[in-house]
Amino acid sequence: MTAFARRARAAAARMHPELSLVSFTLLSHLEDQQGCRATDLAAYYMLDKSTISRQIAALERLAFIERRTDPADHRIQLLHLTPAGTAKLAEAAELRQQAFDARLADWEAGDLEQFAEYLLRYNSTASSWS
């Protein structure tokens, strides 16, 4: 699992060198949630607020996210992807898909199905620990 995590970080760096794996994950979450507060990100990923603040600052410098006032409560700032952030996420997803396709091209259908089943099982078990 350690080797898998190291390869994931290295692949993330190759696919989008200006984004850390954490930053990429935050962008994905913002896309899925259609925006959220920084405190929500910290709570969801169980990260310190200072870690989230550094990541948000970097993503803002890259113009991948922006702050918008919450229409329901004007005191709250919500983080949203910018068009550049959406494009970077789509680009990275396409590169990731190409990499997976290349790595798994020689696998037989049964092996792929079993691998997918194991990944689903692992993710299900892992999510119950968080």
Summary keywords:
70% helix; 6 helices; 130 residues
Describe this structure in words.
There is one protein chain. The protein contains 6 helices and 2 strands; from the N terminus they run H-H-H-H-E-E-H-H. With 130 residues, it is mainly α. The chain has a two-stranded antiparallel sheet with strand order 1-2. Strand 1 (65-70) and strand 2 form a beta hairpin. Helix 3 (38-45) packs across helix 4. The chain is globular. 14% of the residues are buried.
Low-pLDDT stretches: none
Count of helices? 6
Count every beta strand, where a strand is a DSSP E run of 2 or more residues: 2
Helix content, binned percent: over 70%
Which outline best applies?
globular
Biggest sheet statistics: 2 strands, antiparallel
C-alpha Rg, in Å?
17 Å
Mean pLDDT: 87
- Following the backbone from N to C, one meets helices and strands in this order, namely HHHHEEHH
Termini separation comes to 17 Å
SS-based structural class? Answer: mainly alpha
Share of β-strand residues: 5-15%
If strands are numbered along the chain, what order do they take across the biggest sheet?
A: 1-2
Please summarize what this structure is:
The chain is mainly α and 130 residues long. It is 70% helix and 12% strand.
Q: How are the SSEs ordered, and which strands pair?
A:
Elements: H1 2-15, H2 21-33, H3 38-45, H4 49-61, E1 65-70, E2 73-81, H5 83-104, H6 109-129
Antiparallel strand pairs: 1-2
